[in-house]
Amino acid sequence: MKIGSLDLGHEPVFLAPMEDVTDIPFRRLCKEAGADMMYTEFVNADAIVRDIESSMRKLNILAEERPVGVQIYGREIEPMVEAAKIVEQTGPDIIDINFGCPVKKIAGKGAGAGMLRDIPKLVEMTRQIVKAVDHTPVTVKTRLGWDANSKFIVDTAERLQDVGISALTIHGRTRAQMYTGEADWTLIGEVKNNPRMTIPIIGNGDITTPEGARNAFDKYGVDAIMIGRGAIGKPWIFSEVKHYLKTGEKLPPITMRQLVDLLKREIDETMNWIGDERRAVLHVRRHLAIAFKGLFDFRETKIKMLREEHIPELKNILDEIAERWG
Fold first, then answer.
1. Whole-angstrom distance, CA of residue 259 vs CA of residue 191
2. I want to staple 92 with a disulfide (CB 3.0 to 4.6 A). Which of 70, 78, 227, 263 is the partner?
């Protein structure tokens, strides 16, 4: 599979862009586990144009984690075009446009999935960004539609292809669904099997197991799959999926000690990246909360772990978890 001239191999597996998740420390872990393509956290176009330090920091990409795409979002065409030009100068492998984020503070203001309420504007924004970018492939990530009555993705995909995008990622839910219910892959399959479509189609939504990944490729024919929430607290999912896709066999489950050592490493790398102990601990809490999901009689330990604000003590709690539940 290729996006522009970028060759991503056969049945590639991508890490989805996620706010407060897909920073450099987490991307490193996913890359080592086998992720074929990754994305930054999504970045506000207005903040890029205004050169806001916290947003510009998200554009940093290390050589060893490539290929990496930068995803931008916004509701007005002019700043989105200007942001794309600025982003291209930082050297990403792909510039991705976010037409899929469903959260109220973004979609409710007309950006992200909010653009699905104005398809002509969505298409025109994309056309102008493609035209403005010199040599970096432009891709789009979106949803089936705004709600159950506006699932226009088959037509929208054609129109996006016509204005020059190099690939399209589709999350199998509407904005109205947020992350509830099951992802509907049937329309993703319809887009992929539309004879008019020639660009790669990447499927996203509810892929949390190697078997789910295999089914997405075999049943719906997508060119690649993207894993989002299934990777939070579980970056080794890429190893499991890649091995299963290649061999049809499942890897042995990760041990509790391996999990704890991986999380301790993520804590250290996050601390090095952020440079502030309290902020680093707060940043990794989501990963810690999900990593131990399903452990029996874990509630008190979980509360203790999520309340701890100091790294040495937090690591001690993790070691205790490895000893008790290992």
1. 38
2. 70
